Amino acid sequence: MQTFDPLSVAHCQGQEFAPSYWAATQSLPTANPAPEASEHFDVAIIGGGFSGLLSAYYLATNYQQKVCVLEANQVGFGASARNAGFALPGSGRLGYPDYAKRWGMAVSRGIYDEFQGGVNRVRSLIAEHNINCDAQPSGYLKVAHNAQAYANLQAAAQFISTNFGTDDSRLLHRDELEAEFMLNQHAHGAIRYENGFGLHPLKLLMGYREMVIQAGVTLFEHSLVSTVKHGLRHQLSVNDQTIRADKLLYTGNAYNNKHSHPLIDNRYLPILSSIFVTRPLNEQELVQSGLQTHQVVMDTRRLKYYYRLLPDNRLLFGGRGAVFAKDQNKAKYLNHLKTALSACFPCLSGINHDYYWHGYIAAALDDMPHVFFEDNVGYILGYCGSGVSFSSQAAYRLAQLAMDDKVPELPLYQRPLPRIPFPQLRRFGQLGYYHLAQVQDKFS
Protein backbone atom coordinates (compact mmCIF):
# COMPACT_ATOMS: atom_id res chain seq x y z
CA MET A 1 0.00 0.00 0.00
CA GLN A 2 1.29 3.46 -0.90
CA THR A 3 2.29 5.57 2.11
CA PHE A 4 -0.37 8.18 2.66
CA ASP A 5 0.37 11.76 1.64
CA PRO A 6 -2.68 14.00 1.19
CA LEU A 7 -0.99 15.71 -1.77
CA SER A 8 -0.42 12.57 -3.80
CA VAL A 9 -2.69 9.76 -2.58
CA ALA A 10 -6.39 9.91 -3.41
CA HIS A 11 -7.67 9.03 0.09
CA CYS A 12 -6.64 7.59 3.44
CA GLN A 13 -9.10 4.73 3.70
CA GLY A 14 -7.47 1.41 4.52
CA GLN A 15 -4.30 2.95 5.93
CA GLU A 16 -3.05 1.57 9.24
CA PHE A 17 -3.76 3.37 12.49
CA ALA A 18 -0.78 5.12 14.05
CA PRO A 19 1.08 2.88 16.57
CA SER A 20 0.74 5.59 19.19
CA TYR A 21 0.86 5.61 22.96
CA TRP A 22 -2.75 6.76 22.86
CA ALA A 23 -3.92 3.76 20.82
CA ALA A 24 -2.04 1.44 23.18
CA THR A 25 -3.81 2.87 26.24
CA GLN A 26 -7.36 3.34 24.91
CA SER A 27 -9.27 0.67 23.02
CA LEU A 28 -11.57 1.58 20.15
CA PRO A 29 -15.26 0.68 20.24
CA THR A 30 -16.90 -1.44 17.57
CA ALA A 31 -17.13 0.72 14.46
CA ASN A 32 -20.50 2.09 13.41
CA PRO A 33 -21.77 0.66 10.11
CA ALA A 34 -21.51 2.41 6.76
CA PRO A 35 -24.69 3.57 5.00
CA GLU A 36 -26.84 0.66 3.84
CA ALA A 37 -29.43 2.74 1.99
CA SER A 38 -29.79 6.19 0.48
CA GLU A 39 -30.65 8.88 3.03
CA HIS A 40 -31.20 12.61 3.25
CA PHE A 41 -29.74 14.89 5.93
CA ASP A 42 -29.86 18.58 6.65
CA VAL A 43 -26.07 18.59 7.00
CA ALA A 44 -23.43 16.04 5.98
CA ILE A 45 -19.96 16.31 7.50
CA ILE A 46 -16.89 14.67 5.96
CA GLY A 47 -14.31 13.85 8.63
CA GLY A 48 -14.84 12.29 12.05
CA GLY A 49 -12.18 13.98 14.17
CA PHE A 50 -12.53 16.73 16.76
CA SER A 51 -13.83 19.27 14.22
CA GLY A 52 -16.37 17.02 12.53
CA LEU A 53 -17.79 15.50 15.69
CA LEU A 54 -18.13 18.83 17.48
CA SER A 55 -19.63 20.60 14.44
CA ALA A 56 -22.21 17.82 14.33
CA TYR A 57 -22.82 18.09 18.07
CA TYR A 58 -23.52 21.82 17.96
CA LEU A 59 -25.70 21.56 14.85
CA ALA A 60 -27.78 18.82 16.45
CA THR A 61 -28.08 20.29 19.95
CA ASN A 62 -28.21 24.03 19.26
CA TYR A 63 -30.09 23.99 15.94
CA GLN A 64 -31.94 20.63 15.91
CA GLN A 65 -30.45 19.67 12.56
CA LYS A 66 -30.49 16.14 11.17
CA VAL A 67 -26.76 15.50 10.76
CA CYS A 68 -24.48 12.70 9.64
CA VAL A 69 -20.71 12.40 10.02
CA LEU A 70 -18.85 10.36 7.39
CA GLU A 71 -15.49 8.95 8.47
CA ALA A 72 -13.41 7.08 5.88
CA ASN A 73 -11.80 4.87 8.51
CA GLN A 74 -12.78 4.62 12.18
CA VAL A 75 -12.95 7.59 14.50
CA GLY A 76 -9.46 7.88 15.94
CA PHE A 77 -7.53 7.33 12.72
CA GLY A 78 -6.51 10.89 11.86
CA ALA A 79 -4.80 13.86 13.46
CA SER A 80 -7.20 14.02 16.41
CA ALA A 81 -5.63 10.86 17.84
CA ARG A 82 -2.07 11.33 16.53
CA ASN A 83 -1.24 14.65 18.18
CA ALA A 84 0.60 15.34 21.44
CA GLY A 85 -2.52 16.18 23.44
CA PHE A 86 -1.66 19.84 24.02
CA ALA A 87 -4.73 22.00 24.68
CA LEU A 88 -3.21 25.44 24.08
CA PRO A 89 -4.52 28.90 23.16
CA GLY A 90 -2.47 28.77 19.96
CA SER A 91 -2.62 31.58 17.42
CA GLY A 92 -1.45 29.73 14.33
CA ARG A 93 2.06 30.81 13.35
CA LEU A 94 1.27 34.48 13.96
CA GLY A 95 1.68 36.44 17.15
CA TYR A 96 -0.87 38.95 18.39
CA PRO A 97 1.28 41.94 17.36
CA ASP A 98 1.17 40.48 13.83
CA TYR A 99 -2.63 40.38 13.91
CA ALA A 100 -2.71 43.94 15.26
CA LYS A 101 -0.40 45.15 12.50
CA ARG A 102 -2.58 43.54 9.81
CA TRP A 103 -6.06 44.34 11.10
CA GLY A 104 -5.87 46.57 14.16
CA MET A 105 -5.91 46.09 17.91
CA ALA A 106 -9.62 45.26 18.19
CA VAL A 107 -9.25 42.35 15.78
CA SER A 108 -6.11 41.14 17.54
CA ARG A 109 -7.97 41.16 20.86
CA GLY A 110 -10.90 39.34 19.29
CA ILE A 111 -8.63 36.60 17.97
CA TYR A 112 -6.98 36.34 21.38
CA ASP A 113 -10.40 35.83 22.99
CA GLU A 114 -11.33 33.15 20.44
CA PHE A 115 -8.18 31.11 21.07
CA GLN A 116 -8.55 31.43 24.83
CA GLY A 117 -12.17 30.44 24.36
CA GLY A 118 -11.11 27.24 22.64
CA VAL A 119 -9.20 26.04 25.71
CA ASN A 120 -12.06 27.05 27.98
CA ARG A 121 -14.61 25.29 25.77
CA VAL A 122 -12.63 22.03 25.90
CA ARG A 123 -12.53 22.29 29.69
CA SER A 124 -16.30 22.85 29.76
CA LEU A 125 -17.03 19.89 27.49
CA ILE A 126 -14.83 17.62 29.60
CA ALA A 127 -16.60 18.71 32.77
CA GLU A 128 -20.14 18.72 31.39
CA HIS A 129 -19.87 15.27 29.82
CA ASN A 130 -17.60 13.68 32.43
CA ILE A 131 -14.94 12.78 29.87
CA ASN A 132 -12.06 10.95 31.52
CA CYS A 133 -9.19 12.02 29.29
CA ASP A 134 -6.30 12.17 31.78
CA ALA A 135 -6.36 15.98 31.90
CA GLN A 136 -3.14 17.17 33.53
CA PRO A 137 -2.50 20.27 35.67
CA SER A 138 -2.98 23.66 34.06
CA GLY A 139 0.07 25.45 32.72
CA TYR A 140 1.89 25.94 29.43
CA LEU A 141 5.60 26.67 29.41
CA LYS A 142 7.07 28.35 26.35
CA VAL A 143 10.84 27.94 26.62
CA ALA A 144 13.25 30.41 25.00
CA HIS A 145 15.97 28.61 23.04
CA ASN A 146 18.30 31.64 23.10
CA ALA A 147 18.65 35.11 24.62
CA GLN A 148 16.86 36.87 21.74
CA ALA A 149 13.94 34.48 22.01
CA TYR A 150 13.69 35.27 25.72
CA ALA A 151 13.53 38.99 24.95
CA ASN A 152 10.81 38.27 22.38
CA LEU A 153 8.80 36.34 24.98
CA GLN A 154 9.06 39.27 27.35
CA ALA A 155 7.83 41.65 24.64
CA ALA A 156 4.92 39.36 23.74
CA ALA A 157 3.80 39.13 27.36
CA GLN A 158 4.03 42.89 27.72
CA PHE A 159 1.98 43.38 24.54
CA ILE A 160 -0.86 41.21 25.84
CA SER A 161 -0.81 42.77 29.28
CA THR A 162 -0.75 46.35 27.97
CA ASN A 163 -3.23 46.05 25.13
CA PHE A 164 -5.65 43.35 26.27
CA GLY A 165 -5.77 44.19 29.96
CA THR A 166 -5.13 40.60 30.94
CA ASP A 167 -2.21 38.91 32.59
CA ASP A 168 -2.25 35.10 32.77
CA SER A 169 1.48 34.82 32.16
CA ARG A 170 4.61 34.79 34.27
CA LEU A 171 8.09 35.44 32.95
CA LEU A 172 10.64 32.97 34.30
CA HIS A 173 14.35 33.70 34.42
CA ARG A 174 16.55 30.68 33.80
CA ASP A 175 17.21 30.12 37.50
CA GLU A 176 13.48 30.21 38.25
CA LEU A 177 12.77 27.74 35.46
CA GLU A 178 15.43 25.40 36.81
CA ALA A 179 14.32 25.70 40.44
CA GLU A 180 10.61 25.15 39.80
CA PHE A 181 10.19 23.20 36.56
CA MET A 182 13.18 21.63 34.76
CA LEU A 183 16.92 21.65 34.10
CA ASN A 184 16.75 22.26 30.36
CA GLN A 185 20.31 22.90 29.20
CA HIS A 186 19.12 24.83 26.13
CA ALA A 187 16.72 27.12 27.99
CA HIS A 188 17.41 30.83 28.43
CA GLY A 189 14.25 31.30 30.46
CA ALA A 190 10.58 30.83 29.71
CA ILE A 191 7.13 32.26 29.99
CA ARG A 192 4.41 30.32 31.74
CA TYR A 193 0.80 30.72 30.65
CA GLU A 194 -1.94 29.55 32.97
CA ASN A 195 -4.51 28.61 30.32
CA GLY A 196 -3.24 25.39 28.78
CA PHE A 197 -3.05 21.74 29.74
CA GLY A 198 -2.23 18.25 28.51
CA LEU A 199 -4.69 15.43 27.93
CA HIS A 200 -5.14 12.03 26.29
CA PRO A 201 -6.47 13.00 22.84
CA LEU A 202 -7.94 9.62 21.91
CA LYS A 203 -9.87 9.45 25.19
CA LEU A 204 -11.14 12.98 24.52
CA LEU A 205 -12.16 11.94 21.00
CA MET A 206 -14.03 8.91 22.33
CA GLY A 207 -15.86 11.26 24.69
CA TYR A 208 -16.87 13.45 21.77
CA ARG A 209 -17.96 10.36 19.84
CA GLU A 210 -20.33 9.36 22.62
CA MET A 211 -21.64 12.93 22.86
CA VAL A 212 -22.67 13.09 19.20
CA ILE A 213 -24.32 9.66 19.26
CA GLN A 214 -26.31 10.66 22.35
CA ALA A 215 -27.28 13.90 20.55
CA GLY A 216 -28.87 11.89 17.74
CA VAL A 217 -26.17 12.41 15.12
CA THR A 218 -25.73 9.55 12.63
CA LEU A 219 -22.09 8.47 12.61
CA PHE A 220 -20.98 6.42 9.60
CA GLU A 221 -17.53 4.79 9.89
CA HIS A 222 -15.50 3.04 7.18
CA SER A 223 -17.48 5.31 4.87
CA LEU A 224 -15.33 6.84 2.16
CA VAL A 225 -16.97 9.65 0.21
CA SER A 226 -15.78 8.72 -3.29
CA THR A 227 -17.54 11.46 -5.27
CA VAL A 228 -19.56 14.59 -4.52
CA LYS A 229 -22.03 16.34 -6.82
CA HIS A 230 -22.59 19.87 -5.59
CA GLY A 231 -25.80 21.76 -6.14
CA LEU A 232 -28.90 22.93 -4.33
CA ARG A 233 -28.76 19.50 -2.73
CA HIS A 234 -25.38 17.81 -2.47
CA GLN A 235 -25.10 14.16 -3.50
CA LEU A 236 -22.38 12.07 -1.91
CA SER A 237 -21.46 8.59 -3.13
CA VAL A 238 -20.55 6.43 -0.15
CA ASN A 239 -19.94 2.69 -0.50
CA ASP A 240 -22.40 2.42 -3.41
CA GLN A 241 -25.03 4.39 -1.52
CA THR A 242 -26.12 8.00 -2.00
CA ILE A 243 -26.22 10.49 0.84
CA ARG A 244 -28.07 13.70 0.05
CA ALA A 245 -27.59 16.82 2.14
CA ASP A 246 -28.70 20.43 2.00
CA LYS A 247 -25.39 21.57 3.45
CA LEU A 248 -21.93 20.02 3.36
CA LEU A 249 -18.97 20.56 5.70
CA TYR A 250 -15.36 19.44 5.16
CA THR A 251 -13.63 18.85 8.50
CA GLY A 252 -10.78 16.47 7.62
CA ASN A 253 -8.15 19.23 7.95
CA ALA A 254 -4.84 17.75 6.70
CA TYR A 255 -6.55 14.41 6.00
CA ASN A 256 -8.94 15.74 3.37
CA ASN A 257 -8.97 13.84 0.11
CA LYS A 258 -6.58 14.94 -2.62
CA HIS A 259 -9.46 16.44 -4.62
CA SER A 260 -12.17 17.54 -2.20
CA HIS A 261 -13.62 20.89 -3.28
CA PRO A 262 -12.30 24.05 -4.98
CA LEU A 263 -12.78 25.89 -1.69
CA ILE A 264 -9.92 23.91 -0.14
CA ASP A 265 -7.99 22.17 -2.93
CA ASN A 266 -4.47 23.61 -3.31
CA ARG A 267 -5.01 25.94 -0.37
CA TYR A 268 -3.14 24.21 2.46
CA LEU A 269 0.08 22.38 3.21
CA PRO A 270 -0.03 19.06 5.10
CA ILE A 271 3.04 18.83 7.36
CA LEU A 272 4.30 15.70 9.09
CA SER A 273 5.02 15.80 12.80
CA SER A 274 6.73 12.92 14.60
CA ILE A 275 6.42 11.95 18.24
CA PHE A 276 8.10 9.39 20.44
CA VAL A 277 7.29 8.32 23.99
CA THR A 278 10.00 6.97 26.28
CA ARG A 279 9.79 4.24 28.87
CA PRO A 280 8.82 5.62 32.30
CA LEU A 281 11.56 7.77 33.79
CA ASN A 282 13.00 6.50 37.06
CA GLU A 283 13.48 8.64 40.14
CA GLN A 284 17.14 9.33 39.39
CA GLU A 285 16.33 10.51 35.85
CA LEU A 286 13.59 12.79 37.16
CA VAL A 287 16.03 14.33 39.63
CA GLN A 288 18.86 14.71 37.09
CA SER A 289 16.57 16.27 34.47
CA GLY A 290 14.94 18.47 37.08
CA LEU A 291 11.54 17.62 35.63
CA GLN A 292 9.13 18.62 38.36
CA THR A 293 6.09 19.31 36.23
CA HIS A 294 3.54 17.57 34.03
CA GLN A 295 2.66 20.86 32.34
CA VAL A 296 2.98 21.10 28.57
CA VAL A 297 6.17 22.59 27.12
CA MET A 298 7.07 24.03 23.73
CA ASP A 299 10.17 25.93 22.67
CA THR A 300 10.52 29.06 20.55
CA ARG A 301 12.31 27.59 17.53
CA ARG A 302 10.78 28.02 14.10
CA LEU A 303 10.91 24.23 13.87
CA LYS A 304 9.56 23.69 17.34
CA TYR A 305 10.09 20.86 19.81
CA TYR A 306 7.34 20.07 22.29
CA TYR A 307 7.24 17.72 25.22
CA ARG A 308 5.62 16.79 28.54
CA LEU A 309 5.68 14.17 31.23
CA LEU A 310 2.71 11.84 30.94
CA PRO A 311 0.80 10.65 34.02
CA ASP A 312 2.94 7.48 34.18
CA ASN A 313 6.17 9.56 33.99
CA ARG A 314 6.96 8.62 30.42
CA LEU A 315 8.29 11.59 28.46
CA LEU A 316 6.53 12.52 25.23
CA PHE A 317 8.78 14.41 22.81
CA GLY A 318 7.85 15.64 19.34
CA GLY A 319 8.84 17.87 16.47
CA ARG A 320 8.76 18.19 12.71
CA GLY A 321 9.12 14.94 10.77
CA ALA A 322 10.05 14.12 7.20
CA VAL A 323 9.07 16.42 4.35
CA PHE A 324 8.17 13.54 2.04
CA ALA A 325 5.85 10.82 3.34
CA LYS A 326 7.95 8.01 1.87
CA ASP A 327 10.81 9.03 4.19
CA GLN A 328 8.88 9.24 7.44
CA ASN A 329 10.18 5.96 8.91
CA LYS A 330 13.84 6.61 8.13
CA ALA A 331 15.95 6.33 11.27
CA LYS A 332 17.42 9.81 10.90
CA TYR A 333 14.15 11.51 11.87
CA LEU A 334 13.82 9.59 15.11
CA ASN A 335 17.52 10.15 15.77
CA HIS A 336 17.03 13.86 15.16
CA LEU A 337 14.36 14.02 17.85
CA LYS A 338 16.45 12.01 20.29
CA THR A 339 19.45 14.26 19.67
CA ALA A 340 17.27 17.26 20.47
CA LEU A 341 16.04 15.59 23.65
CA SER A 342 19.55 14.76 24.83
CA ALA A 343 20.70 18.32 24.11
CA CYS A 344 17.99 19.59 26.47
CA PHE A 345 18.39 16.82 29.07
CA PRO A 346 21.80 15.11 28.75
CA CYS A 347 20.89 12.57 31.42
CA LEU A 348 18.30 11.13 29.01
CA SER A 349 20.75 10.59 26.16
CA GLY A 350 20.15 7.21 24.56
CA ILE A 351 16.94 6.53 26.44
CA ASN A 352 14.77 3.82 24.93
CA HIS A 353 11.41 4.64 23.45
CA ASP A 354 8.32 2.46 23.56
CA TYR A 355 6.23 4.33 20.96
CA TYR A 356 6.99 6.31 17.82
CA TRP A 357 4.49 7.59 15.27
CA HIS A 358 3.69 10.33 12.75
CA GLY A 359 0.74 12.47 11.74
CA TYR A 360 -0.19 15.44 9.59
CA ILE A 361 -1.10 18.94 10.61
CA ALA A 362 -2.31 21.55 8.11
CA ALA A 363 -0.89 25.03 7.57
CA ALA A 364 -2.38 27.83 5.51
CA LEU A 365 -0.40 30.27 3.39
CA ASP A 366 -1.33 33.17 5.67
CA ASP A 367 -0.36 31.22 8.81
CA MET A 368 -3.74 31.19 10.52
CA PRO A 369 -6.75 28.85 10.72
CA HIS A 370 -9.86 29.44 8.64
CA VAL A 371 -13.49 28.63 9.34
CA PHE A 372 -15.53 29.44 6.26
CA PHE A 373 -18.99 28.82 4.80
CA GLU A 374 -20.26 29.81 1.34
CA ASP A 375 -23.02 28.53 -0.96
CA ASN A 376 -23.99 25.76 1.47
CA VAL A 377 -20.42 24.40 1.67
CA GLY A 378 -18.10 25.02 4.62
CA TYR A 379 -14.81 23.92 6.09
CA ILE A 380 -12.34 24.21 8.94
CA LEU A 381 -8.68 24.12 7.96
CA GLY A 382 -5.23 25.26 9.05
CA TYR A 383 -4.97 24.67 12.79
CA CYS A 384 -1.18 24.60 12.41
CA GLY A 385 -0.83 22.29 15.40
CA SER A 386 -3.37 23.93 17.74
CA GLY A 387 -6.36 21.79 16.83
CA VAL A 388 -6.93 20.07 20.18
CA SER A 389 -8.32 23.25 21.70
CA PHE A 390 -9.30 25.52 18.82
CA SER A 391 -11.27 22.74 17.11
CA SER A 392 -13.92 23.17 19.79
CA GLN A 393 -14.31 26.89 19.13
CA ALA A 394 -13.98 26.47 15.35
CA ALA A 395 -16.68 23.78 15.31
CA TYR A 396 -18.99 26.00 17.31
CA ARG A 397 -18.43 28.87 14.88
CA LEU A 398 -18.82 26.65 11.79
CA ALA A 399 -22.18 25.46 13.10
CA GLN A 400 -23.22 29.10 13.54
CA LEU A 401 -22.05 30.00 10.02
CA ALA A 402 -23.89 27.02 8.52
CA MET A 403 -27.09 28.19 10.18
CA ASP A 404 -26.59 31.82 9.12
CA ASP A 405 -26.08 32.84 12.74
CA LYS A 406 -23.90 35.76 13.78
CA VAL A 407 -20.20 35.15 14.51
CA PRO A 408 -17.47 37.61 15.55
CA GLU A 409 -16.26 39.79 12.69
CA LEU A 410 -12.76 38.35 12.51
CA PRO A 411 -10.60 37.23 9.57
CA LEU A 412 -10.67 33.71 11.02
CA TYR A 413 -14.33 33.49 10.00
CA GLN A 414 -14.62 35.93 7.11
CA ARG A 415 -11.72 35.12 4.83
CA PRO A 416 -11.40 31.98 2.70
CA LEU A 417 -8.16 30.07 2.56
CA PRO A 418 -5.73 31.78 0.18
CA ARG A 419 -4.51 29.78 -2.78
CA ILE A 420 -0.98 28.44 -2.67
CA PRO A 421 0.99 29.53 -5.76
CA PHE A 422 2.58 26.71 -7.74
CA PRO A 423 0.93 24.08 -5.51
CA GLN A 424 2.74 21.22 -7.24
CA LEU A 425 5.98 22.59 -5.73
CA ARG A 426 4.69 22.77 -2.15
CA ARG A 427 6.92 20.01 -0.83
CA PHE A 428 10.06 21.55 -2.31
CA GLY A 429 9.14 24.93 -0.84
CA GLN A 430 8.68 23.22 2.51
CA LEU A 431 12.08 21.55 2.19
CA GLY A 432 13.72 24.90 1.45
CA TYR A 433 12.00 26.52 4.42
CA TYR A 434 13.19 23.74 6.75
CA HIS A 435 16.81 24.27 5.71
CA LEU A 436 16.49 28.03 6.18
CA ALA A 437 14.74 27.67 9.53
CA GLN A 438 17.44 25.36 10.87
CA VAL A 439 20.03 28.03 10.13
CA GLN A 440 17.88 30.82 11.59
CA ASP A 441 17.18 28.82 14.76
CA LYS A 442 20.91 28.61 15.44
CA PHE A 443 21.50 32.34 15.21
CA SER A 444 18.24 34.08 16.08
UniProtKB/TrEMBL annotation:
Protein name: Oxidoreductase
This protein's record includes keyword Oxidoreductase: yes
UniProt keyword Lipid metabolism, yes or no: no
Domain FAD dependent oxidoreductase: 42-401
SUPFAM superfamilies the UniProt entry points to: FAD/NAD(P)-binding domain
Annotated Gene Ontology cellular component terms: cytoplasm
Residue spans crossing the bilayer: none
Single GO term (MF): oxidoreductase activity
Keyword line: Oxidoreductase
Species classification: Bacteria, Pseudomonadati, Pseudomonadota, Gammaproteobacteria, Alteromonadales
Taxonomy, superkingdom: Bacteria
Family annotation (InterPro entries): FAD-dep_OxRdtase (IPR006076), FAD/NAD-bd_sf (IPR036188)
Organism: Pseudoalteromonas rubra
